[in-house]
Amino acid sequence: MDLEKTLDSQAAGSASIPSSAPAPAPAPRPSGGNSGDDYLTEMADHGEFSISGLLLWLSAIIAISATVFFWFLNSSATQDLADKTSQKDDAVAEISSPTYAALETRANQFQSAVNQLSTASKSRFSMDNFLPLLYGQVNKNVVVTTLSVDDTGKVSFSGTTDSYKSAAQQVATLKNWKIDEKNVVTTATLDSESESVESGVVSVTFSISATVDKTTALSTASVSATEGGI
Amino acid sequence: MEKKKSSTPGFIAVFLVIVAFLLSWFWIIPQYKQNKADVAQVDHELTAVKAKLDSLKTAKSTLDSLGSTVDSMFVAVPSDQDNGDIITTLEAIATANKTYIPSFQISGGSDSSGTSDQSQSTSTGAVSVSFSVSGDFAGLTGFVKSIESNLKFFAIKSATIAPADDGTFSTTLQLETYTQGDTSTISGGASADVMSTATAQ
């Protein structure tokens, strides 16, 4: 019995905490007045974790997240580049097809033809009506030797008549030539004249230069209505 | 005894931060920037190509709608110089107006048959033709009228009329006719211009 009591008391003694034994540290708990930092500091003091380690790991996570984010951005841009390059290649292939190449050539040729016609038409001086109109301004007593016209409106006229007065009258005829109340000739000058007598007949050879106002309605004027020959 | 803290996790964290930084800074971000620049460039090119494609499609519909006008335009201003065609056309006009052309002189341009004077620039596409034509006054005026109303475009640069004693006239004419010139100098915008030209017509 004694032995059993002894064993029981020892067992009870080992289970109980002697009053002289050091008590384990109570778990610190944050009170209402203490800050979270104090709590973390206390935790760190007890070796449960370190603040610097936590910050390092947070930084690592943020850095890795940023890297992954940039990687996704880059992947997206790469994919975008591939898509657009593919679209461009398709469009270029379409343009380079024989159908479109021929079409482009035809369009360029047409445009060139239009440009040529446009430019040439602006400087063109339509003479189909002007030459008869001009010839209608030759006085009856004048024999034309040559009559030249160029597309700038310059007229050179050489002929023969019976007197100086007739040569001057020819200049006057040109100066007085009007279509729709508008003078056709802006300048007309008697460049030269010379008199000769053959078999008692006087003849005066002369040359006139004149400038025609191309803005007058030369192409629509009636030939008979403008005949000014004397 | 105080437990010794391990520094390995801290080093791993620092290593990961450094690796992530280096990876981003020296590889991913430059590549991203390059890709964005390339995308902008390709986008620009794609826009231009699409615009040209649209322009060509519009030109096609415009040319189709113009129909025979386009062919007439190519007769008026052909792509190549053909001196034989020029001479044949003028002779036909002269015959129709009972006039006569003794000779021709053609200069400028580049004859497709290789018989022309090629000393002048071909870029303008202008071909100069000089000749004399003889006949009565009505025939000459009819000749001039036919030249100017011909489908093939002729511009009379100068005309010199000289009456002869027998009542006929000899007229020396200097004409210009045109080819399309160097169409390669026309940009891709020609297609859009065709549209505007057609609209004007």
From TrEMBL, chain A:
UniProt keywords, alphabetically: Membrane, Transmembrane, Transmembrane helix
Low complexity biased stretches: 9-20
Region span, Disordered: 1-39
Tree of life domain: Bacteria
Segments passing through the bilayer: 49-73
Protein name per its UniProtKB record: Uncharacterized protein
Organism of this sequence: Candidatus Berkelbacteria bacterium CG10_big_fil_rev_8_21_14_0_10_43_13
From TrEMBL, chain B:
Alphabetized UniProt keyword annotations: Membrane, Transmembrane, Transmembrane helix
UniProt-listed Gene3D superfamilies: 3.30.70.60
Spans traversing the lipid bilayer: 12-29
GO biological process assignments: type IV pilus assembly; type IV pilus-dependent motility
Protein name, as recorded: Pilus assembly protein PilO
InterPro entries xrefs: PilO, Transl_elong_EF1B/ribsomal_bS6
Superkingdom of source: Bacteria
Keyword Transmembrane helix: yes
Species of provenance: Candidatus Berkelbacteria bacterium CG10_big_fil_rev_8_21_14_0_10_43_13
